[in-house]
């Protein structure tokens, strides 16, 4: 979906779109109704639908949920241009008027577009929407800090567009979240900020769920690190983050904490491909890596629901 060409206000924050929306999705824009076919055919069919539907409101007034709210707060604090990586529209500005739609790359949803594609993944889909070109255009006309605050599924989607960036541009990037992204350019790993589960510990002012981790982390960075050291290099920013978190404990056992079924499903879907859909591996990731307790019977029910919803 096209956008204005004016130079964005710097710095820039990239956040992910959300399935939750304040405006009811247009029933004409549901990925479940797309034909199964080649990448080009499905993308052309979707974009033709989008072109016939009128925009409803600015993106910032359509997407909702804590993840998006935290990203907006970070952008306001940094006086940054907020851009949204959208599975349905490519790359859009928060002020850009868009239609409300139902399309996701999260496995298990009836509107997961990946179920319609023949042997193609999420990065291929986003590229077919023009997302890679939109992101490269944004990076090419930016001149300040670029904060990429995306969960793993969305960082994997945009990663191919970042592979060939220059060293100078890489130094202006800060990445938070999205740790489960294999084959990410090592130069990009060098500008990743060391946020981890201490952000959910007892001393944290911004605890939350795994699904909103990246947005909470970028807000902490903007308000506590960038505000004090706006011109620091990536290595210095990483050191300042580590200092800020050094006195924070990791979260206690979450056995007494209730996480909603929807939040757990988001996490399981995000790690589904990595675990090759194996329930035992998924449960180990939840418990051992993410420190999320989930009773076996409940976990089995949730994974069964995901399989039924998306025919995984």
What is the spatial order of strands in the main beta sheet? Answer: 4-3-1-6-7
Radius of gyration computed on alpha carbons: 19 Å
Q: How many beta-strand elements?
A: 7
Number of domains: 2
Residues in β-strands, percent: 5-15%
Shape: globular
Poorly predicted parts: 4-9
What structural class do the secondary elements suggest? Answer: alpha/beta
Reported for the largest beta sheet, the result is:
5 strands, mixed
Q: What is the averaged pLDDT score?
A: 87
Helix content: 40-55%
The end-to-end span amounts to 29 Å
| Element string (H = helix, E = strand) | EHEHEEEHHEHHEHHHHHH
Tally of alpha and pi helices: 12
Q: Can you describe this structure?
A:
- This protein has 312 residues and is an alpha/beta fold.
- The protein has two domains: 234 residues, no CATH class; 50 residues.
- It contains twelve helices and seven strands.
- Strands 4-3-1-6-7 form a five-stranded mixed sheet, with helices on both faces. A two-stranded antiparallel ribbon has the order 2-5.
Which key phrases capture this entry?
single chain, 312 residues, alpha/beta, 2 domains, five-stranded mixed beta sheet, two-stranded antiparallel sheet, 12 helices, 7 strands, globular
Describe the structure concisely:
With 312 residues, the chain is an alpha/beta fold. It has 12 helices and 7 strands. The protein has 2 domains: 234 residues, no CATH class; 50 residues.
